[in-house]
Amino acid sequence: MTHLPMLLEEQDLAGALEWLETQPPYAIADEIARMDEVQSVITFRLLDKDRALEVFEELDPVDQQQILEGLRDQAFRDLVENLDPDDRARMLKEAPAKVAKRVLAGLSAHERQMTAALLGYPEGSVGRFMTPETVALQQDLAVGEALEVVRRRGARAETIYTLPVVDRGRRLTGIVELRELVLSEPTAMVSELVVTEPPRAQATEPAEAAARLMRETNVLDLPVVDSEDRLVGLLTSDDAFEVIEAADTEDVARQAGAEPLERHYMSASVFQLSRTRMVWLLLLLVAATLTVSVNQAFESTLESVTQLALFVPLLIGTGGNTGAQAATAAVRALAVGEVRTSDLIRVIWRECRTGLLLGLMLAVVGFAVGAVFVGADLAAVVAITLIVICTWASTVGGTMPLLAKKLRIDPAVVSAPMVTTLVDATGLVIYFTTAKVVLGI
Amino acid sequence: MTHLPMLLEEQDLAGALEWLETQPPYAIADEIARMDEVQSVITFRLLDKDRALEVFEELDPVDQQQILEGLRDQAFRDLVENLDPDDRARMLKEAPAKVAKRVLAGLSAHERQMTAALLGYPEGSVGRFMTPETVALQQDLAVGEALEVVRRRGARAETIYTLPVVDRGRRLTGIVELRELVLSEPTAMVSELVVTEPPRAQATEPAEAAARLMRETNVLDLPVVDSEDRLVGLLTSDDAFEVIEAADTEDVARQAGAEPLERHYMSASVFQLSRTRMVWLLLLLVAATLTVSVNQAFESTLESVTQLALFVPLLIGTGGNTGAQAATAAVRALAVGEVRTSDLIRVIWRECRTGLLLGLMLAVVGFAVGAVFVGADLAAVVAITLIVICTWASTVGGTMPLLAKKLRIDPAVVSAPMVTTLVDATGLVIYFTTAKVVLGI
């Protein structure tokens, strides 16, 4: 029976897992009680959620306390970081709601983020941002009694304005607002004031989605539950705002072909600033060699009408601008939920017509500019190219973010510079081909 | 005495103003009492704030009601819209807090926005977004009494979680959170729980600044006061969030050289989509004719080494990307308050070095690409140009938003396309000059 500590010593997590699966909860609790803090925590985290709760309940309060403290501990954190990713993933399954809540309570926002990782909440998930300190109510209380509960336990909670209502098994059944309690008669029943089936988020789901849901449903705080709908915490509007602000900052940076800075702009070093921008610049530079190839392919066209070169920056610049506008509009519309990936065909059709309309208007000016600098022939080439390029750029720019999202890539990665670079190369092909056809070269 | 109605009939606002200045409040109240709704409202809105309050207090309740209703009225709204801008500005000075609060109460968010304009709150100001329905407390209450006030008047208020504390003259002296009241003994005094000198916003100041202040100070709701610090309402976190989201959407659109859509992306017509993008595209196209001139100026250089043309899209593209990254980073840093206009010199220096570092790294790749397509000579020109263009683009891109803000222009107007277009033209000059020097043309 005592070979579990040995398996752990040898870091044989698979063996330990096998052993744990065959033992009854009380036997596991017994083993845990004899272990040192780190070993007991590892053993505990290897259990799946239901078993973990059973074992936890079997433990003496002093051993329970050891596990809770161990889960917050730097030693455990270091150990998890040194595991190989497979073992780490196996270990960090979602912890039981009851344990998670107690581990996270009393930590600062920063410590909470660090510790939430050890409880199995992935990076950027709701579990990393929620507060576990809530005042949960039972449905069968009178308003006066409920206010008593709030008074007794509210000082420790981060917010008491949203009060989750749970059943005996900590399953979320509704929420009630403090406002309703305060404005009602003390003899009224909480059950009359409860909003049932409230919007909620799972602790493991992306925080941004939860924050946007809060905005749409206009709730002050969003209850957070585990995969069995047991209450683990609340996402406050404060936290939600921070999540959305960070997501927006990331989108904005990505739209310009950069990664978001992890720190304050003025305190970041020049090297850190460069690093956020370098990768995309390099990729785009490599992609831009395509334009060199296109130019080379049409070298004879360029040589026979050297004046064609005059308009290259103007044409690809305009194409890039049109594409960037469409891409940015699509990324934002996706972010705030105005467009879904299922709208793809409709977006293509909208952007195609928008680009055509823009191209037609710009062609008038383009023709005038061309006529001033060169002749009407070349001006016609410029005008026609503008129409085709704008239609193409707008369609590509508007479509690519949706395609990215379909492929589960962050749509904001389809940056304005990326669209611009793509439109540069294809724009040149459009330009030279138009020139060949119109001028009969 | 009765020539006021005549002056109004003739739309002689200047004359009416002069008359009003010479009369005592009771006489004006007397005149107002005889007028029809529209005339009485106009007269009332012509008074400056202090006089307006004095006159208002002199009026019978029924006449007060007439003014309040008139201020919400469509007829008055139409009339104001048809005034010429000078008269309109003269008329729509800030209304007294007491009157403003009563006019706005009970209106929907949309009606409130429309009506707030008639009370003298400029577009985009806090007054257009705030809720006037608050529960204000007096400092000398006990907690139990204060909760009684909240119970009695809370149902009508939009929020009761933040309770502004005012003195006898409705001047804001602090706030107290409902949380504090609920968790304290009923016999404690409100004065012990009050947060004095709370952050606040003036109704006439920009809503975005107020919303960002809320985020920084982490308050749930922000008290809104008039120019004499009298309470007029609360900006709730909900409203603040909406303000910031709209501002971000605007920034994002402007960054791509477009105006924000006023409606849902999918419901906007192709014509509306085009309109948001057209103006900038046209301006940028006109600006891009500069690149045609530059190309023309260097035509002899281009003709003597025709291969120079191969790299034009790649070079100006990379310059544009670098500039766009820097501009976007600067605009966002300004928006979230990480950078101030006083940081101008430091930002120039940072972006200059960042651009240089990026340019040096890109030059290595650029040289390799050049060497593959053409010879080492031309590759050297490409590499040197990349270094100079990146340094220049990064500096210009990072600096222009700050300069725009200094000139009180929205920094986001310094869009990526604008920087790109500017860098296109100057980049060509850098490229051809470098070629002339290095190749000795």
Provide a descriptive summary of the structure in words:
2 copies of one chain form a homodimer. The first copy, chain A, is of the alpha/beta class and 441 residues long. The first copy, chain A, folds into 3 domains: 3-93, no CATH class; 137-254, CBS-domain; 272-439, Tetracycline Repressor, domain 2 (Orthogonal Bundle), CATH 1.10.357. Helix content of chain A is 65%, strand content 6%. Chain A has 21 helices and 7 strands. In chain A, strands 1-2-3-4 form a 4-stranded mixed β-sheet. In chain A, strands 5-6-7 form a 3-stranded mixed β-sheet. In chain A, helix 3 packs across helix 5 and helix 20 packs antiparallel against helix 21 (416-439). The longest helix of chain A is centred in the C-terminal third of the chain and has 31 residues, at 376-406. The radius of gyration of chain A is 30 Å and the shape is elongated. The interface between A and B is large, with 100 and 100 residues. Chains A, B: InterPro entries: CBS_dom (IPR000644), CBS_dom_sf (IPR046342), Mg_transptr_MgtE_intracell_dom (IPR006668), MgtE_N_sf (IPR038076), MgtE_transporter (IPR006669), SLC41_membr_dom (IPR006667), SLC41_membr_dom_sf (IPR036739). Chains A, B: It is found in: Cell membrane; Membrane.
How many domains is the backbone of chain A divided into? 3
What is the CA–CA distance across the termini of chain A?
Answer: 88 Å
Oligomerization state of this entry?
homodimer
Helical content of chain A (DSSP H or I, runs of 4+): 55-70%
List SSEs of chain A in N-to-C order: HHHHHHHHHHEHEEHHEEHEEHHHHHHH
What CATH architecture of the largest domain in chain A would you give? Orthogonal Bundle
Q: The CATH topology of the largest domain in chain A, please?
A: Tetracycline Repressor, domain 2
Strand order of the largest sheet of chain A: 1-2-3-4
Largest sheet of chain A: 4 strands, mixed
Strand content of chain A: 5-15%
